[in-house]
Amino acid sequence: MADPLHTIAGTLRDALAQATALPADSIDPVVRPSDRADAQANGALALGKQLGRNPREVAEAAVATGLLDGVCDHVEVAGPGFINLTFKPEFLAAQLAEAAADDHLGVRSAGLTEIAVVDYSAPNVAKEMHVGHLRTTLIGDALVRMLEFVGHTVIRENHIGDWGTPFGMLIEHVVDLGGADAELNLDLADPGSFYKQARAKFDASDEFKERARARVTLLQSRTDGPTMALWQKLVDQSADYFDVVYGSLGVLLRRDDIVGESFYQPLMPAMLDRLDHAGLLDVSDGAKVVWVPGFTNREGDPLPLIVQARTGGFNYATSDITCVLDRVERLHATLLVYCIGTPQSQHLQMVFKAAEMLGVLVPPARAVHVNNGSVLGADRKMLKSRSGEPEMLLDLVDGAIERGTALVAERSPELSADDAALLGRQLGLGALKYAELSTDRIKDYVFDWDRMLSFEGNTAPYLQYAHARICSIFRRADLQRDSVSDVVPAISDPQERALALQLLQFDAAVHDAVDKFSPHKLCTYLFELAQTFTAFYEACPVLKDGFEATRESRLALCHLTARVLQQGLALLGIDAPERM
Ligand code: ARG
């Protein structure tokens, strides 16, 4: 346990148990970081209330047990019964040494490790990936990395839109272009125009419309070889394009992670049977629906969740309910994470509720909508490209790399072309990703290249620079960083103490980000760590003559800071170069 708050919480629990004669495992000591001391415990307040005792007296009795003396220099009961704790330097040093010896840097594994399915990115076949996919892709990718880091088994699923009525017109458009041998421009050049061309024909020609309708029926039967081959061609070519985007963005999604809407089609009739057997299916206006309590339309009337249209077709809700079943029953997932924009919130809540009513999405299985707001342009409207279309994701990636490269050329002209290209990419992509991930996901944010590429403020370049600067300290001293791995630092100066405490919060920060599915919590922590390090470095000379006695100890603090920064950025999918 390299989190002092966690260690101290255990000790406090025992002290409060002795003070109240309650069983220790029923007590929450409520330990928090504090401005007045290293930590504060508020648990005596609730216990006092529960037992009808004065909370101050409960707090004082806990302190009087002496159990805290081993880890604290100073313990004080304040206000109505807060316990303010100041740790012994040796305790902090020992906790740091423990964190340093751990390849997870003191981040504890989750108490209960689960199988988690993370549904993210989810672009649509024959359409381009645009700025909206930036958010779901990056948030999902960071969550995958963090969930794995704390020990969960994570299954990535890219729930692409690869089925439904538009595929009638899309396939007919392929037929017009030459069928199996057709050249489809579903690549980087203009992935979205294919869809628009098909749509234009559909709107203009009754003959095409008829063909499209007939083709949907063939597709839905899944038995017509040529139709399936044309469909597969569309899906494969789009997947090639998605792969390029994921590759250039540096996210974990691979071809194997695609489990699109089409996958669930064959499983849907059985799902509808189950709804029927459970007495949950009703017919409304000719469509099969589920009445999910608690959802109403604008007029206040109950809102049906349509699972089969009057025409017999299945829809988005059918696919998503079936998908819940698949994740819980085939994959044995207990945590279903959906990284999708806020506008789909009602859809998902209804789907989750329907799956719950069916007895599938029940504890320990649970689903979470990890929603996100929009990326805005300077005009505070959805970010648009010059042509007025939503900004393409790949253009943002290219723009980031270009700007990162320009920045490197300006700051580090001495680098070789290869090194400069790599660094430019790391800087640009880091900036783009961090701007996204450091914002509370539920909020909208204004896209601003200058701000995200700045070396000041809560940005990737600031954090990457802090890391690179530590690496350069070791280079100047002509030392391998590993050489101080086993050094137990001495904590005496206030800035050393502040840095030690901050380093030891990594565990809490990662768990907070994971528990709330909020990468920005980790970003805030890393930013504070970099600032605390800067203050330490200004106040505590590391390599200066005359400070030989503290050199090793301070180098050990530097080394651990660099490791936490590097690991923290890696959890966000961001590289930490050693030189900048
Ligand atoms: N393809 C959908 C869209 O672009 C997102 C799908 C998200 N995942 C899901 N299970 N519904 O809006």
Report on the architecture of this protein.
The chain has helices spanning about 5-20, 45-50, 55-65, 90-100, 130-150, 165-175, 195-205, 205-220, 225-250, 260-265, 270-275, 315-330, 345-355, 395-410, 415-435, 450, 460-475, 495-505, 505-515, 520-540, 550-570; strands at about 30-35, 40, 70-80, 80-85, 115-120, 155, 280-285, 285-295, 300-310, 335-340, 365-370, 375, 445. It is α/β, with parallel strands linked by helices. Among the domains are: about 5-85, Gyrase A, domain 2; about 165-245, no CATH class. The strands form four sheets. A four-stranded antiparallel beta sheet has the order 1-2-4-3. A hairpin with a 5-residue loop joins strand 1 and strand 2 (about 40). Helix 6 crosses helix 9. The longest helix is centred in the middle third of the chain and has 25 residues, at about 225-250. The radius of gyration is 28 Å and the shape is flat. Arginine (ARG) binds next to helix 12. The site of arginine has 9 residues, from helix 12.
